[in-house]
Prior knowledge:
The chain is about 80% helix and about 0% strand. The protein is an all-alpha fold. The chain starts with a helix and ends with a helix.
Amino acid sequence: MKKSRLEAFSDGVLAIIITIMVLELKAPPQPTLQALQPLWPDLASYAVSFVFIGIYWNNHHHLWQVVEQVNGAVLWTNLHLLFWLSLVPFATAWVGESGFAAAPVAIYGLVLLGAGGAYYLMTRVLLALHGGDTLLARALGSDFKGRISLWLYAGAVAVAWFEPWVACAAYVAVAIMWIVPDRRIERLLPSRRD
């Protein structure tokens, strides 16, 4: 199967997710900067979620540059990833509207954990399809950062019930780890073009 339809579909879903998130933001009734102050939780949760969706889009794009083929299992694991990412607007809105209350922050973390786990699973399915001695396998390596992210998410979900701000700090720490596109793939791409 060709990968182009999967890439186009995924790009479309991610664009819709970002659109839904921004539509959840409501303008204040007064035309003053002070009117924005009560909206800071909504704006903060939107900004963090936008960065997360951007990170997934960026890394998804990089990953698919070294993918040669797809099969049914790859299609389903990609849909699994998109399922979790499609929950981000709901979790984002709940966190913002609650002012970072414990339950919404924990659910937000569960959504991030689900998305991270789905991405990790998708890479494992792709590796199984492509084999061990491929550009994809060399690009993914041991995926230390991916595994650490899952542990941080899981720990943050547990902590969120007692200290939501500590959990939020862990979510932001994971985002900071991933803000730069995956260099493993970028380092290998020039050699493929030669």
